[in-house]
Prior knowledge:
Blueprint: E1 2-5, H1 12-21, H2 27-32, H3 36-39, H4 46-52, E2 55-62, H5 66-72, E3 83-90, H6 94-105, E4 114-118, E5 127-134, E6 141-143, E7 152-154, H7 158-165, E8 178-180, H8 184-224, H9 231-253, H10 262-281, H11 288-308, H12 312-315, H13 322-325, H14 333-362, H15 375-383, H16 388-394, H17 401-414, H18 419-429, H19 432-441, H20 446-462
Helix pairs in contact: 8-9, 9-10, 9-11, 10-11, 11-14, 15-17, 17-19, 19-20
Amino acid sequence: VGLMSVGSAGEAERFALTLQTGKRWSPAAVREGVRLRERFARLRWLTEDVAREGVRVQVEAIPPDPSLVKWFSPSQSAGQASETLQIWWLRERGENLSRALERAVGSLNPQRDRLMLVGLPPKGESLAPVILAGSGLSTGVLTSATTRTEGVVSDVDLTPTLLQWMGLPLRVGEHPMRVVRKDPFSTTQSLAQRYRWNAQALIPLGAVQVLGGLLAVLASLRQARGGSVSRRGRLLLSVAIGLLLSLPAGTVIAPYLPASNLTLYVANILLAAAGLSLLAHWGVWEQPFRAYIRACALSALVLLADTMSGQQGAKFSVYSAYALSGIRFYGIGNELMGVLVGCALAWGIAWLTCSGERRAVGGNRDGAGDSSLGGKPGGLANRHDGTGLCVGEWAPERQTAMGAGRRLASRRRAGCCRGDVAGQSQRAAFPPGRYLAALAGGGLGRRDGDSALQNGADDARAE
């Protein structure tokens, strides 16, 4: 037993064409019908192929449908055939369907024959039940190399499976279904429930992310224009933005967590995203930019860890519900790939910028005693640990007057092009006494520099 992904080929005509060719086609191709064989000489046509190999093909539609019977009937019939392929196309409901099924399977011998039973999904659905039974088949769930997911197969796997049953050769890229020994009913029920939740949660989560992003932008603009926002309000805004950044990673974590209904499933996604946001803010509550970079790093790590552990999260993530679209069953999908690339770039650029500034500052250690800087700035540059610039940009309010002197002296020695901009941000962050002390320490001799720094520190304490 398994779930079959039919993608957008849920209509009967398109499914019939997929069964004949082992491939999916667009609606325009379906309208061409059998003329596709004239356009594509090497195209597989199931009933024609098996008839050439000496297999008799029988087609019956209930209720009668001559056009459908003609669609599946081969142009030539096998003479003395040892094997028979029966295709029953049933369009009945309720008791009529039960009677039609009894008629279809009543003549089968379970010790010799095999049955493939497929039910097309209702309009708008993308998953259908599929059952294999008969000689040599064990109890379990179906899978294939196409989906690499236990309990899920694709409609393009039907044709290779029938060919394999009849001992006929397969082409490159054709993957027959196989059975995995697991409880078929609980597994398929769990999968169907998970896919249904993904379909139901996709639009609400997308709306949360879009509306939340708009509200975050509006709140940030208000804060940038000088609107009064409390410290708690700024912190909540920062954590909320981190939650939005971490939401895709939350959809990857949620499949690993237990959930008995849709509400708990969505709650797991939001809680996982909130947990990543809080973890990213840990220790840097007053530094939102640094927290956002951490959130990007954590999201990238979650995706990489899931990939290394078998992609359980990516396969069943709301943002990459492969079986619902049937487009792909490998990789992490375009949506999560975009998240991974974006997060990795943000993390990498921030790290390179920080490390580059550290190297620029660290290169000033050889400038001790330089006459153009004075003895004191040279000594400051010699003792600079290379991290003050990067940390200072994230948390300038925590730097002392001595730290400001070190950064300015190092910038002058390194010729940093960002010196003017950084100096302007320091004017806003430091009291006048500290800033003047830092400037004085950057252009005087050793003794005068010491005196200016001491005076600046005294002024700052007095303020």
